[in-house]
Amino acid sequence: MDILGYRRPDGKVGIRNHILIIPTSVCSSTVAANIANQIPEAVALPNQHGCCQIGPDHLQTVRTLIGFGKNPNVAAVLVVGLGCEGIPIRETAAEIAASGKPVEVVIIQEIGGTLKTEAEGLRKVSELVRQVSHLQPEKVDICELSLAIECGGSDFTSGLASNPAVGIAADLLVAAGGNVMLSETTEFIGAEHVLARRAKTPEVAEKLFKIVQDCEERAKFLNVDIRDGQPTPGNIAGGISSIEEKSLGCIYKAGHATIQDVLKYGEIPKGKGLYIMDTPGQDIESITGMLAGGATVVIFTTGRGTPTGSPIAPVIKITANNRTYKTMEDNIDLDASPIISGEETIEQVGQRVFEEILAVSNRRRTKAESLGYKDFGIYKIAPTY
Amino acid sequence: MKKQAVVINPKDNVATVVEDFPSGTIIHFFIGQSEHSLQLLEDIPLGHKLAICAIQVGQDILKYAESIGVATELIRPGQHVHVHNLESRRGSRDK
Q1: Sequence-distant (≥ 6) Cβ neighbours of residue B75 within 8 angstroms
Q2: pLDDT of residue B93
Q3: CA nearest to A241, candidates B27, B32, B72, B5
Q4: Is A230 near chain B, with CB under 8 Å?
Q5: Which of A24, A102, A353, B29 could form a disulfide with A87 if both were Cys (CB 3.0 to 4.6 A apart)?
Q6: CA–CA min distance A360, chain B (Å)
């Protein structure tokens, strides 16, 4: 099976050809946005962080920005720094440039203010447009694809239909040699033992138990036990009887493959197959982590409906709630409700999901892309100082 | 046949209903490819579960082919399965 991909100098393959403008600090985000507004081929990250961060929280932000720059859906990068922020501007740019793609830098305090920096940034991005606009996608094997799996705004149909159907598609991609990422550590609680059975090694299983335990410990540090309210009264009213049932419904979206490893937030997997990434359950932060980890396409299951999209990757939305599909048809790409009504099996819809992933990888735009959605949010793991 | 309840995996001993059904309704569903029907012994609200075979005290309640808890009493086919007769093995409030 072939898709149309852009082969980057580091050998990785993207299915989009974006020019990305990365502000290294919240203080340079406006300049980055202004430059992107002027050039249709460019997109800027709305970075809200990048300064006065410490330890692992600082490193995670650096890793996320570098990961976005390295993402194979990105053809070229302009890094926009203020000059005094905690994120190392030139090192961040150099790390992205090590992947071989063109990278430029502008620094507001060095160039001297907003207007001169925007002028210099525009000049550099217009050069980047000319450098990468001739790139043609080529036929590549589907094993080059990296799929991120997300669920949000779940209801009883998610665990019943859309998640298991997406699990079928995930299995098909893993069988074809591709990458799949499952995230949202909060939603492993109560089902981590089921995932751990599929860990490649006992060490991988240990890592999985550790991220779930750490997730619960962080909540306890704030004098909150996540499990106190799980399942929630709303979940119980909706028919969910236990934390196992709730989390099992979530994890089935990643299918049945062996778990190769557990990744830090924004970490790039070293091999092929199914990986778990330690992210929060918040959709935007979870998707941002997986895209920093090199995912090139996202599938998103929902019950209540969500409009989410990304600045650099197609996000395919699917619901098995017929009412949600009808009321939010401008946001939802796939209707999995025939599973609920009995007109289609989970396997049949799983095949349709896989075909949609192929179509989007062959340049069809998703609804979130066609509506211009560009959500981005870095997961913070410590207060800002 | 209109499907009225979903059995996710043939190993499961519960089905999830996709409409509100009053006690006494005969509902239809598939286990794998085969059609089945069962009379409800209790009201089952939308999204809730019913037993599709007898489940003994202490026996695992299976959905997605995995345990979602254990039965705290004998549950007969057609009875409602929920927090009143299912106990999490993990304990939803363990510290």
Answers
A1: B51, B54, B55, B81, B85
A2: 46
A3: B72
A4: yes
A5: A24
A6: 28
Answer for the pair A215, A185: CB distance below 8 angstroms, yes or no: yes
Residues of B in contact with A244 (CB under 8 A): 66-69, 88-90
Mean pLDDT by 10 residues, chain A (385 residues): 95 98 98 97 97 96 98 98 97 98 98 98 98 95 97 90 96 98 94 94 98 90 79 86 92 95 98 97 96 98 94 98 95 96 92 98 96 97 92
Q: How far apart are CA A326 and CA A167, in angstroms?
A: 24
Give the three-state DSSP class for A241. coil
Architecture of the A18-132 domain? 3-Layer(aba) Sandwich (3.40)
Q: Cβ distance A239 to A303 under 8 Å? A: no
Q: Domain tally for chain B?
A: 1
Domain that holds residue B37: 5-87
Among A26-35, A117-126, B27-36, B56-65, the range scoring the smallest mean pLDDT is: B27-36
SS3 state at A69? helix
Q: How far apart, in whole angstroms, are the C-alpha atoms of residue A329 and residue A362?
A: 22
Chain A residues with CB under 8 Å of B20 CB are none
The predicted pLDDT at position A352 comes to 98
Residue with tokens 């082919």: B65
Closest CA to A285 of A358, A377, A347: A377
Beta-carbon count within 10 A of A27 CB: 19
- Cα A267 off chain centre by: 12
Diameter of chain B by CA atoms? 47
pTM for the complete prediction? 0.94
Residue with tokens 């992205």: A96
pLDDT grade, residue B94 (50/70/90)? very low
For residues A184 and A299, give the distance between their C-alpha atoms in angstroms, rounded to a whole number: 14
Nearest-angstrom CA–CA distance, A107 and A90: 9
Q: What is the pLDDT of residues B11-21, one digit of tens each?
A: 999 999 999 99
CB contact under 8 A, A160 and B81: no
Residue B92 belongs to some domain of the structure: no
Answer yes or no: is B16 within a domain: yes
User: CATH number for the domain including B21?
Assistant: 2.30.130.110
- Does the predicted interface ipTM exceed a cut of 0.90? yes
